[in-house]
Write a structure and sequence with these properties.
By secondary structure, the protein is α+β, with helices and mostly antiparallel strands. About 25% of the residues lie in helices and about 25% in strands. The chain contains 12 helices and 29 strands. The strands form 7 sheets. The protein has a 7-stranded antiparallel sheet. It has a 7-stranded mixed sheet with strand order 21-20-19-22-23-29-28, sandwiched between helices. The chain has a 5-stranded antiparallel sheet with strand order 1-5-2-4-3, covered by helices on one side. The radius of gyration is 32 Å and the shape is elongated. The relative contact order is 0.09.
C-alpha cells in the first residue's frame, strides 16, 4: 500500500513537531541542571542552547548573524560549553533576535536549527578565565623561522618513505633521526644510532645556538598530525633525554595542554613557533594535544574556535648518557627504577611478596595454568627414554604429565601448589630453589619455567641457576624461562600485550610513546619503594610488584625482576660448569638452554 503525498507531508510535519518537543525538553533539563532561570517573557538576555564552542560554532559566524539584526550586543561564549549567551541593548532587540533565530537558523556544520530562550541573567559560573600563565620553564618563541624556511622544511619531507604508520600511533606518521624512540618502552638505545639528523635541518641548530641553547641536539622526531589527531598527555622520559626539549610547529597551529595536579594551562602553538621546555615544565608537567578538528582560542574579540589543518612538529632532544639526577623525584623514572635490594631485605621481600602470596592464590593460580608452552613441550619431547627430569618451581605440575618414558620429579616453595601436585599423582617435594635437596650430578635434565624472576638480587638469581647446574649430570641440559623487559607486541608469539586493556585516553595498550605516572608501594619494613605494574602494559622498571586478583575480588602483589635483553645470558656465563647451547625469545620471555660441561676448565 502506497501513502499519498498528502499523508507523507502529514507524517513529516508530525515528526518535525516531535523533534522540536524533544529538543525543548532537553534544553529545559539543561537549564535546570545549570541553575539558569529562563522565562517566557522577553528580557535583554538570550541563551543559544545548542550553539557554543564545543559544537564547533565560531564567534565570527554568530557575529555575522547578529550584526545583520542589531547594532549593539555582548556575546559570551564559555570555553568547553555547547551553549552561549547574548545580552542585547533592549528587550526589543532581544525579541528581534529570538524571532529570527529560534528554530529557523541553521549554521554550517550544525545538525539542526538553533534554539533560543530568554533568561533572567547571564550565567557567570562558566565564564571564569582559565589559567593563562605558562608553567615555570616554558618559553614560546613565535615566528622562530620564516615562511620560506617553513616551506623548505615541509617540502623536504617524503612521507611515502615514513618509518611508521601504525595503530600504536593511531595512524600518526613519524620519522626518527639520530636515535629511534622505542614507543613500547619509552626510551632510546644510545648504543644503537640510526641515520643522523639531515643536513637540510642543520640551520635550525644555528638558530638554537643564537638563543643560548647549550646542546648539540642529536635526536629528532618528526610527527605529522592530520586534523583530528593528537597525542595523550605525558612527560617525556627523564632518564633518556637531557633537560631542554625543543618543539618546532609547522603547517597548522594547535593548542597544547599542560597539566600539573589541579592546574591546567592551554598554550596556543602558532605555525613556525618554537616551544622550549626546561626545568619544571619539562620534568613535572604533562603535555598533550587533544584529538580534535578545532581548538578553542582567545582573540581580541573574545573566545572563538579555530580549525586545525595538517601540523608537522620537529622535536629536538639531546640523548642523555647516564641516569637522571633531577629535582622532581615524584615524576622521575630513574628515581623509581633505582631500587637497591640488599641481601638482608631480599629474603623478607620474597617471603612477603612471593611465597606468602602463592600460598594465598595457589588454587586460583592452578586454575589458570593448564596450557603447556610449545617450545617447553618440544624440549621435553626430545628427552631420551629413561631420562630423569627435574622441574624446579613446578607449580601445579603442568609439565610433569605426559611422556611416560621420562621419569619426572618436581619441587616448589609453595605448599599449596605441592598439595595440588600430590593430588594429581606427581612425585614432588617442597623446597627452596636456592638450596635444592638433591645430590650433585643426579638428574639428566631440568626445567625452570617462570621462577627465577621472583628472586630479588642478582646473586640469588645466579645461585639458583648454579644449583640447577650442580644437580645436572655432565652433559645434561636445563631450560630456563624468565619474563622479558622487552614485550614485543608485533611478535607472532607474544601474547602479553596483545590482549591488554585499552587505554581510555589513547585507545592503545600503552603505546603512546610516553611514560605515565606509576603507582608506588612503600615497603617500610625493608626500606623499599617499588612500582606497581599495570597488567598487560609494557614494563618500565626492572624490579616491580605485579597485581593478582582472585575471583573473590582480593588483590595481591607479587614481586618480579624482569630481565633485559642479554641479562640472562650474562648471568649464565658466570656459571663455570655450564655453557649456553641456545638463547631465544618466546612469548614475552627470555629463554636459555644450558649444558653442563663434562670437564670444567679452570
Amino acid at each position: 500500500m502506497h501513502l499519498s503525498d498528502e499523508t507523507s507531508v502529514t507524517i513529516e510535519e508530525r515528526n518535525d513537531r516531535k523533534s522540536v518537543r524533544k529538543q525543548r525538553r532537553a534544553h529545559h533539563r539543561l537549564l535546570r541542571d545549570m541553575n539558569i532561570k529562563c522565562t517566557e517573557q522577553p528580557t535583554q538576555h538570550l541563551m543559544i542552547c545548542n550553539g557554543g564552542l564545543v559544537t564547533g560554532i565560531k564567534r565570527e559566524t554568530l557575529q555575522c548573524v547578529l550584526d545583520a539584526l542589531i547594532s549593539k550586543y555582548t556575546l559570551t561564549m564559555p570555553a568547553g560549553k555547547s551553549y552561549c549567551f547574548v545580552t542585547c541593548n533592549s528587550r526589543e532587540d532581544a525579541t528581534c533576535v529570538y524571532n529570527y533565530i529560534h528554530g529557523r537558523i541553521k549554521l554550517p556544520g550544525q545538525n539542526g536549527p538553533l534554539y533560543v530562550c530568554y533568561t533572567e541573567a547571564v550565567s557567570t559560573m562558566d565564564c571564569v578565565a582559565s589559567d593563562s600563565a605558562f608553567p615555570p620553564g616554558l618559553t614560546l618563541i613565535e615566528n622562530f623561522i620564516t615562511e620560506e624556511q617553513e616551506g623548505t622544511l615541509l617540502g623536504a619531507l617524503d612521507w611515502d618513505d615514513c618509518e611508521s604508520v601504525s595503530s600504536q600511533l593511531k595512524h600518526r606518521q613519524v620519522k626518527h633521526f639520530g636515535y629511534e624512540f622505542e614507543y613500547g618502552t619509552n626510551i632510546v638505545d644510545p648504543n644503537k644510532p640510526i641515520a643522523p639528523i639531515p643536513q637540510d635541518y642543520k640551520f635550525l641548530q644555528a638558530l638554537f645556538d643564537k638563543h643560548g641553547h647549550k646542546y648539540a641536539y642529536d635526536q629528532l622526531t618528526i610527527n605529522k598530525y592530520l586534523s583530528g589527531q593528537g597525542i595523550p598527555s605525558h612527560i617525556d622520559t627523564h632518564s633518556v633525554f637531557e633537560d631542554t626539549i625543543l618543539s618546532l610547529s609547522l603547517g597548522s597551529a594547535c593548542v597544547m595542554i599542560f597539566k600539573k595536579e589541579d592546574r591546567k594551562i592551554d598554550v596556543l602553538l602558532p605555525a613556525r613557533s618554537l616551544l622550549i621546555m626546561t626545568g619544571e615544565a619539562r620534568y613535572a608537567w604533562t603535555h598533550g594535544i587533544g584529538p580534535r578538528h578545532s581548538d578553542v582560542i582567545e582573540t581580541e574579540n573574545g573566545t572563538t574556535t579555530r580549525e586545525r589543518g595538517t601540523r608537522v612538529s620537529f622535536t629536538f632532544r639531546k640523548v642523555r648518557r647516564g641516569e637522571c639526577r633531577c629535582d622532581f623525584k615524584d615524576y622521575c623514572d630513574t628515581a623509581k627504577r633505582d631500587t637497591f635490594i640488599d641481601a638482608k631485605a631480599a629474603s623478607g621481600l620474597e617471603s612477603s611478596y612471593v611465597h606468602k602470596v602463592y600460598e594465598e592464590i595457589s588454587n586460583h593460580f592452578s586454575e589458570t595454568r593448564h596450557k603447556r608452552w610449545p617450545n617447553v613441550t618440544k624440549f621435553l619431547e626430545n628427552l631420551q627414554e629413561g631420562t630423569l627430569l627435574l622441574d624446579v618451581g613446578c607449580g601445579n605440575g603442568k609439565y610433569l604429565c605426559g611422556n611416560r618414558n621420562v621419569y619426572k620429579l618436581g619441587c616448589d616453595r609453595s605448599s599449596g601448589l605441592m598439595d595440588i601436585c600430590r593430588k594429581r599423582g606427581f612425585e614432588v617435594l617442597q623446597c627452596d630453589c636456592l638450596y635444592l635437596p638433591y645430590r650433585d650430578d643426579s638428574v639428566d635434565a631440568a626445567v625452570s619455567i617462570a621462577v627465577i624472576h621472583h628472586l630479588s638480587t642478582r646473586e640469588r638469581r645466579r645461585r639458583a641457576i648454579s644449583e640447577m647446574v650442580r644437580v645436572l649430570k655432565p652433559g645434561g641440559r636445563c631450560l630456563i624461562y624468565v619474563w622479558a623487559m622487552e614485550q614485543r607486541k608485533d611478535s607472532a608469539d607474544s601474547q602479553y600485550l596483545r590482549y591488554g586493556k585499552k587505554s581510555k585516553e589513547s585507545g592503545t595498550v600503552n603505546q603512546s610513546g610516553v611514560n605515565r605516572q606509576t603507582q608506588l608501594q612503600r615497603i617500610s619494613e625493608y626500606h623499599l619503594t617499588l612500582p606497581i605494574h599495570e597488567n598487560r602494559t609494557n614494563f618500565s622498571h626492572s624490579d616491580m610488584l605485579v597485581p593478582w586478583k582472585k575471583k573473590s575480588g582480593e588483590h595481591f602483589l607479587r614481586y618480579y625482576h624482569v630481565f633485559r635483553e642479554g641479562e640472562l645470558a650474562k648471568l649464565c656465563t658466570e656459571i663455570p660448569s655450564a655453557s649456553i647451547r641456545q638463547m631465544y625469545y618466546d612469548q614475552g620471555n627470555w629463554c636459555v638452554i644450558l649444558e653442563k660441561c663434562t670437564e670444567i676448565v679452570e
